[in-house]
Amino acid sequence: MKIAFIAHDRKKDEMVNFVTAYEHVFEGHEMFSTGTTGERIMEATNLKIHRFMSGPLGGDQQIGSLVAQDELDLIIFLRDPLMAQPHEPDISALLRLCDVYGIPVATNIATAEILVKAIDRGDFAWRELVHKYKPGVDPE
Q1: Contacts of 60 (CB under 8 A, 6+ apart)
Q2: 20 to 30 A from 86, CA-CA: which of 53, 104, 129, 133?
Q3: Is 20 annotated to bind ligand?
Q4: Global pTM?
Q5: Strand, helix or coil at 78?
Q6: pLDDT at position 85
Q7: In the chain, what are the domain boundaries?
Q8: Is 36 annotated as a binding residue?
């Protein structure tokens, strides 16, 4: 699976703790992240993560590009709902792309945990169905 991690500043510690707790699940998967989030995760774990730019500098858009190219299976995006983000249009565009292409996005720890447990069980066969009905593809 191809998994992306994004965390707003006040959520980075939470993301690092979460990924550390489930490091055994993430091993063997291809991982991507925005700049600082990926750096912090790699410092705390033995995981290798392809890092893009910081979110406000275009990292959210780079991850969105992977979504549009059908190159991601899951995004864990710990958002800070109590802090205005200067790059909110980029965040909205990324979430819209995930809706268009059927990419699951966890925006809080509770949802992230459900998705990671599904990965651990191998419950992502539904992705084949998403591919069958993706935008611009005739399902017949």
Answers
A1: 6, 34, 87, 90, 91, 93, 94
A2: 104
A3: no
A4: 0.88
A5: strand
A6: 77
A7: 2-132
A8: yes
Q: CB neighbours of 98 closer than 8 A, spacing ≥ 6?
A: 67, 75, 104, 105
Query: In which band, very low, low, confident or very high, does the pLDDT at 62 lie, cut at 50, 70 and 90?
Result: very high
Confirm or deny that 8 is annotated as ligand binding.
Answer: yes
Residue 34 annotated as lining a ligand binding site: yes
Q: What are the structure tokens assigned to 8, written together?
A: 């707003």
Helix (H) or strand (E) holding 32: strand 30-33
Residue with tokens 């500098």: 57
CATH number of 2-132, picked from 3.90.870.10, 3.40.30.10, 3.40.50.261, 3.40.50.1380: 3.40.50.1380
Q: Is the pLDDT of residue 140 over 90?
A: no
| Known catalytic residue at 13 | no
